[in-house]
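Pasting as-is:
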Amino acid sequence: MNKMSEQIYKPPKEKIMIKPARIGGYVRDLGTATHISIEKKRREFGAYLTSIDIFKKFIFPEIKDVLYKNAWVDLFCGEGNLILPILEAIPQNKRIDFFKEHIFLFDIQKEMVEKSSENAQNYGIPYEVARKNIQLRDTLQDYPNFRSLKFPPYHITNPPYLYLGYIVKNSKRNLNYFSGPNEGYQDLYQIALINDLRHGLEKSIYIIPTNFLFGFSVSNKIRKDFLPFYNIKKAIIFERKIFEFTGTNVCICFFEKKLQPSQRPIIFKALKVNSKTMEKEYNLSPKNFYRAGGEFDEYVSYFKSPTPLRIKFYLTLDEIEKNKGQKIVKLLDVNNFSNGCFKFNTYLVNEKLYSKLNNNPLFVRTLDTGGWEGRAGIYNVKETFGVNGIVVTKEKYRTHPIQIFITPELPGEDLVLLKDYFNLMLEYFRNITDSEFLTTFKYSNSDYIRKYLGLSQTKKLLETFPVHLMAKEQKKILKILIEQKNIEGIKDILLSLNKKVENQITLF
């Protein structure tokens, strides 16, 4: 190997470096349990119990005026915490009759059925009465018949969360849920939703992972199949942990069946709950699989250049080995991080690789460092780390700094313009979407929620800025517009440039 020496790069105090870590498409922090058997069942069934406080604060106010007009159903009842507290609003001398006609609970676990029955007794319901309406049943495969009910069923539930990928690797029990008409769905909660649609339920309230609203491939199919038939009347999005044994980010969605199936956008207001609560309006378009926070995707699709820059990521050790020479370069080793420091090594490379590194000085920070300084974006390698490049010596991780290689190679002033454009547009979309087009890395009670920027998102945004095709005067104007943060002015220039390029392509 042509490595000459090893040195240590210790980040300045004002710059926070992040230890490389993997980001999965859908990861559960399942926590730990006191007893292995309890934890095993929790993982096997994907069951995370809801607190009564969540019901009382966020759900009961929405239903308190229609208690006598519906049959309150939970097909995955657990301990009954989403239905049984309704009884507190019913006079004690009427609770037994109300329970018989208005409350129906089901669960696949025998111990949960017993626990719910015991909890019903705390509200004054005799055990033998409770057991008639609280039943042991696998409702994902054996949906109850509600036709005999005196009142229309209103489903309030916290269904099981168990991602198909986890089941394939860790469990054989639930694979059959995803066969036949359910093929293509990615999580048990999605099976629960589609079952309600197939059985014609008019209203429901679901506590489900926020990937239902914001996820890409993991949720595209369920939204595409479910939302033409249901409106979202309201949602509550939690940006903090609400379950004891899982860090899965969840929302409460209030669904109501449409009078007629419709492909119109779904518009609703949601409360976002973290250290503070804010209200936001969402517009879910079928053109984007009804995905929330889709403004970024619409922009990069609409403004993509007909002849964009070609983007590649990562400098590997293999490329260095193939380009040995006499030129000295200092490279940050992203796989060598300890005690808050990245190490860097000195290598001897040929003129070709030396020139490539000098002409591609930008890198992408895909992960927020946790403060307002050091957010995800594009930065200069030498200015940030004092090295010539960033090398991957072992595995490629998407959360460490990643060098960007651009074709055709651009002069320095064009690279600065590209970097400034990228960071401005990234912050613009973070502002108008509350960063919802990005992946949440870790929720906390802080005002600052760390986000992850995907490499595909980085590439798509870079492809909207064909600086290699711009005239000198256009670059001057764009530099001013970027400094002024004039988004609409930037869009106008990009649109006119794209039309000009398309016309030239058509002529040839």
